[in-house]
Amino acid sequence: MDCYEKSATSPLLLLPGSVLVHGIPLGQGKIAGIRYGHAWIEMNGFAYDPVAGVIPLAEYYAVGQIEYTVRYTYRQAQKKMNDTGIYGPWDPAIERAVHKN
Asked: Per-domain residue ranges for the chain?
């Protein structure tokens, strides 16, 4: 689950208007058709994905068929990391998607 650590520790999260997003997209390529937990940063109309790169948000959501998201500000993410000792996921629905696969 490198995406959680890479997204939560990205310097981009310190920039105004950025949010850390945990969500459940539909897999592509080797994991086509599988729903899974994933993390990325959203800012200025783009998704900054530690795996896929920088993609316009509309395209990112359309291709990923993302069905559920939870957004965290930098402060909220820091509190979650301090309280749980992990980079994520912190939401039960996303956690189930991670452990299902």
From this structure: 2-91
